[in-house]
């Protein structure tokens, strides 16, 4: 899942080297924190948060395979 | 509650209050009204009594409630998190030019032609582009741990990506939400690598065709219901493309109308009998756009 977020984020931003992703898992939840460069924030969030929502959908699909909930935080 | 109450008279309480409002130049909400005498019209105009009220002005309520409506967001919002809905405000900040598009215009079509370069002609889909799309999609599928066979073909300018059905349920998700998300992200990614606008559709197995067929049947069924008892029927939460399917399915039926209502990406579609008071009060346009020409029977096409 980490790779998924990393890949998507790096593909969407202008400066992929500033993308960092950290993941922490418990029995029930997978929580992922995504950081991107200041200027790229809008790219990973998207119009009306649409890109962020799409990423969350994909994540929750992946997580549900392991019967987990997922959570994606985009940090400033 | 200051003590400088003013007294007013009128032929009934309402007119006394009105009088008070005009004299004091404020709205009734701001007045503290004490009715001293309700008044009476009397009998045959005899024994008429005037209504008598005492009014004090209340300090106007803090108009707090109004506030969170339509303030333009201050640029930096880090200091006030969680005041409104989260997502929309965040993306305001870095001015990606495409993000300010007017919503109304994009309404039905925004799933089809997205934000990038709307003015540009659809880019020619070279074999090279198809290859890029295919590679990116395979990569995404691998990362989602559902590697699948993918074929990408050029369907009249739209890249049609077919994924085999080995992971169909997983990839479609509830009502196709996962598939839509995947499609959206793929388009975003690909449009950075191919110049110009990219049209692409992802399908798993024959999911989309099935879904559309389902929607068409539902639409027709609801339409029949509406004709029967005149009650408005609602199909909830459809994305633009699905709404289009419904509208198109009903466009030639002159007895009923369909209309999309709601905010955001997912709206519901109302199917109703025209002329029942609600009419086109709220939104302009949403019908009509798809009910132009094309008068041959729609139900025949399967």
- How many independent structural domains of chain A? 1
Query: How far apart, in Å, are the first and last alpha carbons of chain A?
Result: 21 Å
Structure class of chain A? alpha+beta
Task: Estimate the mean pLDDT confidence of chain B.
Answer: 72
Helical amount of chain A = 40-55%
Kindly report the oligomeric state of this protein. heterodimer
Side-by-side strand order of the widest sheet of chain A: 1-2-3
CATH architecture of chain A: 2-Layer Sandwich
Structural class of chain B: alpha+beta
Assigned CATH class of chain A:
Alpha Beta
Largest interface: A-B, 30 and 35 residues
Structural summary, described in words:
Chain A is α+β, with helices and mostly antiparallel strands and 76 residues long. Chain A has helices spanning 2-12, 41-45, 50-65; strands spanning 20-25, 29-35, 69-75. Chain A has a single domain, classed as GMP Synthetase, Chain A, domain 3 (2-Layer Sandwich). Chain A contains three helices and three strands. In chain A, strand 1 (20-25) and strand 2 (29-35) form a beta hairpin. Chain A is globular and about 35 Å long. The mean pLDDT of chain A is 91. Chain B contains eight helices and nine strands. Chain B has helices spanning 13-24, 86-90, 103-106, 127-143, 168-172, 177-193, 207-229, 240-250; strands spanning 6-10, 31-37, 51-57, 150-155, 158-163, 200-204, 233-238, 257-261, 267-272. In chain B, the strands form three sheets. Chain B has a three-stranded antiparallel beta sheet, covered by helices on one side. In chain B, strands 4-5-6 form a three-stranded mixed beta sheet. In chain B, strand 4 (150-155) and strand 5 form a beta hairpin. In chain B, helix 4 packs across helix 6 (177-193) and helix 7 packs across helix 8. The longest helix of chain B has 23 residues, at 207-229. Chain A binds chain B through residues 3-4, 7-8, 11-12, 38-43, 45-55, 57-58, 61-62, 65, 74, 76, and chain B through 78, 86-88, 90-91, 93-96, 98-99, 101, 115, 136, 139-140, 143-145, 170-171, 173, 177-178, 180-182, 184-185, 188-189, 192, 264-265.
């Amino acid at each position: 899942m980490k790779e998924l977020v990393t890949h998507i984020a790096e593909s969407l931003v202008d400066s992929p080297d500033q993308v960092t992703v950290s993941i922490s898992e418990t029995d029930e939840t997978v929580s992922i924190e995504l950081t991107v460069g200041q200027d790229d924030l809008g790219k990973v969030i998207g119009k009306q948060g649409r890109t962020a929502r799409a990423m969350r959908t994909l994540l929750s699909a992946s997580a549900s395979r392991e019967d987990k909930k997922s959570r994606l935080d985009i940090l400033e | 509650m200051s003590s400088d109450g003013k007294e007013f008279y009128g032929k009934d309480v309402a007119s006394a209050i009105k009088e008070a409002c005009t004299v004091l130049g404020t709205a009734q909400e701001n007045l503290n009204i004490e009715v001293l005498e309700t008044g009476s019209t009397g009998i045959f105009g005899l024994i008429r009594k005037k209504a008598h009220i005492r009014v004090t002005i209340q300090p106007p309520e803090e108009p707090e409630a109004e506030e969170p409506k339509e303030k333009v967001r201050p640029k930096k919002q880090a200091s006030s998190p969680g005041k409104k809905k989260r997502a929309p405000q965040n993306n305001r900040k870095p001015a990606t030019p495409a993000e300010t598009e007017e919503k109304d215009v994009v309404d039905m079509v925004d799933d089809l032609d997205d934000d990038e370069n709307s003015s540009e002609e659809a880019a020619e889909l070279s074999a090279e582009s198809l290859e890029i799309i295919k590679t990116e999609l395979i990569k995404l599928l691998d990362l989602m741990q559902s590697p699948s066979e993918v074929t990408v073909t050029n369907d009249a300018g739209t890249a049609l990506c077919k994924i085999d059905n080995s992971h169909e349920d997983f990839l479609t998700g509830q009502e196709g939400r996962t598939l839509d998300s995947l499609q959206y992200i793929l388009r975003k990614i690909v449009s950075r690598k191919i110049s110009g606008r990219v049209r692409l559709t992802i399908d798993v197995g024959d999911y989309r065709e099935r879904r559309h067929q389902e929607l068409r049947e539902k639409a027709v069924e609801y339409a029949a219901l509406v004709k029967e008892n005149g009650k408005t029927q609602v199909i909830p939460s459809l994305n633009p493309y699905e709404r289009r399917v419904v509208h198109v399915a009903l466009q030639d039926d002159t007895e009923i109308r369909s209309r999309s209502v709601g905010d955001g990406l997912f709206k519901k579609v109302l199917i109703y009998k025209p002329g029942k008071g609600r009419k086109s009060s709220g939104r302009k346009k949403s019908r009509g756009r798809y009910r132009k020409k094309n008068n041959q029977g729609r139900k025949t096409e399967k």
